[in-house]
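Entry 12.
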Amino acid sequence: METSKLSYFPAPIDGETVYSWLARFHIWSGHNSFRKHSLALFGIKTGQAAAEFPNFLMSLSQQTGVNIDWIIEHMTDVAFYKPFLKQQQYQSLIDALKEGNTASLQSKLGMVANRITPGKVIYFCPKCVENDLEYIGFPYWHVEHQIVGLISCSIHQVELVSLRKIRSMAILPIEHKAYAVINTVDDFSHLIHDEYRCELVLDKSKIIWTFQTRLKELGLLTSNHQLRLKAIKGLLKIGLMKLSGYPVYQYLLSALERQYPECLFYNESAQHHPIKQLFFIFILFGKWNRFLEYYSAAKPLENKSLKSVPHQNLVLSAQAKKQLENGESLRNVSTSTGISVSTLKILAQQEGISIDTRPQKIFRYVERDIWRKLFMGGSCTDIAKEFDISLGAVEQILRKHQYLKPLRKKIWFHREQNQHRNQLMQYFFDNPSRNRKQFRTANSATYMWLYRNDKEWLEDNLPEKVKRIYWPRKIIK
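Predicted 3D structure (tokens):
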């Protein structure tokens, strides 16, 4: 700060955002207009002072005498993107910030394509505000709190509070009531915090090997090292439902119906937003350090890579039917048709073709018991454990009876519906004085599920809305 060209400028704080630094300068300098006076000193005319990647850092560095490398490292969130960028990409990001060429950075980092951007709000932790006031004397905006996807403060385990960005105003965090968060949110926040502090640049192919290793341990890879997508998506959905009250995770929840998380494997050249990677890591490993342990020991699984295979409804050709009806072995028919033996077996059963197979572990009376449990909506995993058989064997019986799938979906829906309805009724039974806003804050996942799937019942069972008071305008004559 000794080489500053300004007569006065406050010293920066490690971990403070650039916008916070400028806001403090404006408030303490006594300038009338933030845009016309304070920002004009640095040549900021149309740029947004609270942008994630400001385009005026070089000017700010020259005017204040603070090294631009220090500003970028300590006052922006580039460290959040570093682990998932190649060294060349990361250096390109740093150069763009130094040169002020930040217009296309969001696109290059996959934020636009992934529809995950910082938005029009800025976040703070109420407990951090209290600490800042006590130990520093003033509150400031923390860089870490602005990371896209972060919901709570990893230090205080409370939900971050948002304030709307206003281009023409310099504002600092305010004192606010703190709200605790659920364990899932807190654990995920710690993982993001650890990733943000990580100095490593990860190799994309090695990340995929790490994912494959863990998926194989969890039984989520086939014998041919392909993804069991339905099971993986179900696992992700359970975690995302707990975070569905937040826009970023609402998007990820909808992305499950499209190309998430398979896009992380099948499109290695694409630049995915870190939050997509981090949530997948959270579900598989729980903690960032545990992921790094697997990463350090990761090796390719028998040099087999995942390839995108479009889903097709297989049917038996006339030639294959004839071969099976004539008593040819499944192995020979599989060789001539290119369809696996297990799939041929299922297709033959669906067509009513009797085939000569070797004795199986699952006898007819056992298969009937398994069918009955599938008919009642039982989980394939639970059934496999109960009968001490493989998950694939249960799924094979399920695929044989295609009519069970829509029935099971209805059973699961009504089961989940009853669970969420009971949670709402129990909440207001235990807290009769609470209003609908307090219920939504305390049970965001339940509220969002009912709002999307059972809206009419939800409106009938929520307390009445708080009546608004409209004060008449005073007419000045």
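Annotation: The mean pLDDT is 84. The longest helix spans residues 404-430.
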